[in-house]
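Risk register update: the risk of archive-format incompatibility is retired. Evidence:
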Amino acid sequence: MEIHRQYKDEIFQKLKIEPYAQFLGIELIEMGEGMAVAELDVADHMVNAHGTVHGAIIFAIADFVFAVACNSYGKTSVGLSTTVNFMAPGKKGSRLKATAMEEKRNHRTAWYNIKVESDGELIATMEALAYRKDHYFVPVKEES
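Archived output:
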């Protein structure tokens, strides 16, 4: 956690420019130790044939906050598995908000709960498992 506090700005800057999130227009709002919040305005091209938010868009914002939360310590972490539950449709023109919260973390793995809201209504949840590598992606000087 000390690395998170010491390098928080560098970690935040690195993670907020993730190319796919940038392409979609996802904005990283907040990052803390094992948590993240992001938002996205749903554009016309992000809906399905029924006029509701495409599941891939919902998954993308949920996956993005999961990635930010599990990488928030500056240590490279990758997803092992996710389970998504779609509960209600998001609407064209709405603002999606995704929040990831770390539930438990150990040396190699970490578990996260993610919720996605559309204009304040819960529309999906995700449970996610991350694998924590040894490598730091920010220039960390480790003490011996």
